[in-house]
Amino acid sequence: MFKRGLVIRDGDLLLRPLRYRDRDIWNQVRHINRDWLSPWEATRPEIEGDSPLPSFAQMIHFQNQELKAQRSYSLGIWLSDAGKERLIGQVTLGGIVFGAYRGGYIGYWIDQRYASRGFTTRAVIALTQFAFSELNLHRIEINLRPENEASRKVAEKAGYIYEGLRPRYLHIDGDWRDHSTFVKENPRI
């Protein structure tokens, strides 16, 4: 279900795809939070012949293609205050597979200046509800580093249940890292 102008709302929180014109603010927020996010950031293993990281424009183009194909919904987390929107993070429903699996995963990051205020949990809950009601997904996972206490709290507060440990699951901060898997299933399916 691709809709131009997709916006998921939860009070003063808006989830919407990033646009080309968001480049400067996205770069600014990411730069300010570089040290804060780096221990949890996905990295790419060194593989000969692999292409370099995409530019912002290439990233947006790819995200738009993935959205249209219903493989991934990568959305900026925007805080609306007095009619002005402020980018405070990003949340992605990715790896979407339909058919017998009907599932995907959610990943997220938040600007340190807005951490521990419930915004990430609200974004995860809103995106989960969208995935269950609009896409009719059955199962969503959140995979996080076991030592990331803040991320674990987000998953638990959003109603996700611990399922188990995946050794060396994702390449994060320069190496293959263990991840705790939290799962939520659609109660309607």
Give me a quick take on this structure.
With 189 residues, this protein is of the alpha+beta class.
What does this structure look like?
With 189 residues, the chain is an alpha+beta fold. It has one domain (8-185): Aminopeptidase (3-Layer(aba) Sandwich), CATH 3.40.630.30. Helices cover 27% and strands 36% of the residues. It has 5 helices and 8 strands. The protein has helices at residues 23-32, 34-37, 56-68, 119-133, 149-157, and strands at 8-10, 13-17, 73-81, 84-97, 103-110, 139-144, 161-172, 175-185. The protein has an 8-stranded mixed β-sheet with strand order 1-2-3-4-5-6-8-7, sandwiched between helices. The longest helix is centred in the middle third of the chain and has 15 residues, at 119-133. The radius of gyration is 16 Å and the shape is globular. The mean pLDDT is 94.
Q: Per DSSP, what share of the residues sits in E-state strands of 2 or more residues?
A: 35-45%
Structural class: alpha+beta
The proportion of residues forming helix, as a percent range, comes to 25-40%
Distinct helical segment count: 5
The CATH topology assignment is Aminopeptidase
CATH domain class name = Alpha Beta
Compute the CA-based radius of gyration: 16 Å
- The overall number of domains is 1
- What is the strand arrangement across the widest sheet? 1-2-3-4-5-6-8-7
Q: Averaged pLDDT, please?
A: 94
Query: Which blocks of ≥5 consecutive residues have pLDDT under 50?
Result: none
Distance separating the two termini: 18 Å
Q: Characterize the biggest β-sheet.
A: 8 strands, mixed
Question: What is the string of helix and strand elements?
Answer: EEHHHEEEHEHEE
CATH homology group: Gcn5-related N-acetyltransferase (GNAT)
Number of strands: 8
Query: What general form does the structure show?
Result: globular
- The CATH architecture can be given as 3-Layer(aba) Sandwich
